[in-house]
Amino acid sequence: MKKFISPIVILLLSLLVLQCGKGEDGGGSDYPTPNPSPTITITASDFSVTIAENPAAGAVLGTVQASASSGASVGFAITSQSVAGAITINATNGELTVADASLFDFETQTTLTAVVRVSAGSVTEDVNVTITLTDVDETVASTLTLWQGPIITFSKPNGGDPNDEANQDRITDNVWITRGNNTPNTQGQIYNIVSESVANDSSSPAGTAWAQGTYATIDDLTFTSFRSASPNQRPKNVVGIPMVLHLIEDDIYIEIKFTSWATSKQGGFAYERRTAE
After folding, report:
1. 210 and 116, same structural domain?
2. Which of 38, 41, 59, 270 has CA 20 to 30 A from 104's CA?
3. Is residue 35 part of a domain?
4. How many whole angstroms separate alpha carbon 259 and alpha carbon 186?
5. Which residue has the higher pLDDT, 252 or 264?
């Protein structure tokens, strides 16, 4: 005897199977749809710098500034440059350096350009690099000793003991630059600890002379004391001002730029300067 199944029962069973096949959200699965990967965006700035011609090989030109969203790491690569082989870039931190110093000749070209590709995952952003050269008087360059080596940074922390070698920039045997802490009647000025025990406002650092400018303008510079060469004769105003330091006894000229100057008698300071080749 055949059993008869009511069409209504069949319909109800079909609906039940269909409902079981759907997730709670009606999307056909009990598992939630995974969130899509966040979109990465890159923030990067064009880079430009002006330097004197004939820098040293390996000299640091600066750093391409770039970052990526969502904490992604960025990489750097040069995709083109107007003078092939002139510069290189650190693939991790974006630091640009001179690769072939002979290509930085003002008489051949006054400007070098490049394109740097910044990447984060599959996302890329191109930035422009512009390096402008200034002419160095060949007569001056042949008669003066200009340190053309890589740029280094020296810093003395607030409260650092000026008698500690770590807090002295020992440029040559004749000049060791440092700065005192809470020293009365010195305006917190830097001094040469080789020949001075404390700073003197009118003459420190002993054995040095200073001028605002660069090698490119050295023939027109007038050298004087550090304080007199500072803007408004206030050493704290020297931060960010390109200067040239003359070591008188050694007869050496050095490009230098202060990057920080602590106030309130804390004694800290920092600068970037050229080194010997």
Report:
1. no
2. 270
3. no
4. 21
5. 252
